[in-house]
Amino acid sequence: MRTSTAALRTVALFEAFKGVLALAAASGLLTLLHGDLHGLAVRLVHHLHLNPAAHYPHVFLDFAQHLQDSRLGLLALGAFAYGALRLVEAYGLLRSRAWAEWLSAASGAIYVPFELAGLLRHADALHAVLLVANLAVVAVMVLALWRRRSGELAAA
C-alpha cells in the first residue's frame, strides 16, 4: 500500500507541475496580446541564428504574422483551463479522491494512441519515454482504482 501511495503522490506532483507550466504559458500568452507578435518572432528567429527562409522558421513566422488577438486570447484561455484542470486533478490525487484517479486514468489513456503514433512516425528516445511514462501513469491509476474497488467490495 505504501508503494501505491508514493506512486499516486508522484503522479499528483507531475500533474501539478504540468498545471503550473500551463498557467505560466497562459500568462505568457496574455502578455503578448496587443503586441507586435510578428516582430518578436522575427527577433527570436534571428537570435537563434535560424534561417528565416527554412521551412520551420518560415512556418513559425507566418503563424505569428497571422495570429489575431482573439485567437491568442483563446489559446491563453485554453492553456489556463488545462492548467486549472491539472491542478484540480493533482489536489484530488493528493487527497486520495476516486474522481481524481478516474480523471487521471482517462486523461492519460487519451494520449496513448497519439504518443504511439508519434513513436511510429519518429522512433526516438523522447517519444519512447513519453509513451512509457504515460502508460505507467495509466497503470498506476488503474491499479489504484482496482484496489479501491476491491476494498469497497471487501467492506460490503
Can you offer a commentary on this structure?
The structure is a single chain. The protein has 156 residues and is mainly α. It has two domains: 1-95, no CATH class; 97-156. 86% of the residues lie in helices and 0% in strands. The chain has six helices and no strands. It has helices at 2-31, 37-47, 55-66, 69-94, 98-121, 125-155. It is elongated, with a radius of gyration of 20 Å. It starts with a helix and ends with a helix. The model has no long low-confidence stretch (mean pLDDT 90).
Name some characteristics of this structure.
156 residues, 6 helices
Write the layout of secondary structure elements.
Layout: H1 2-31, H2 37-47, H3 55-66, H4 69-94, H5 98-121, H6 125-155
Number of beta strands = 0
- The span between the termini is 20 Å
Structural class: mainly alpha
pLDDT under 50 segments (min length 5)? none
Largest sheet: none
Rg over alpha carbons:
20 Å
The structural domain count equals 2
* Share of residues in helices: over 70%
The 3D shape can be described as elongated
Overall pLDDT score: 90
Our estimate of the beta-strand percent is: under 5%
Order of H and E elements? HHHHHH
Number of helices: 6
Give a short summary of the structure.
With 156 residues, the chain is mostly helical. The chain is built from six helices and no strands.
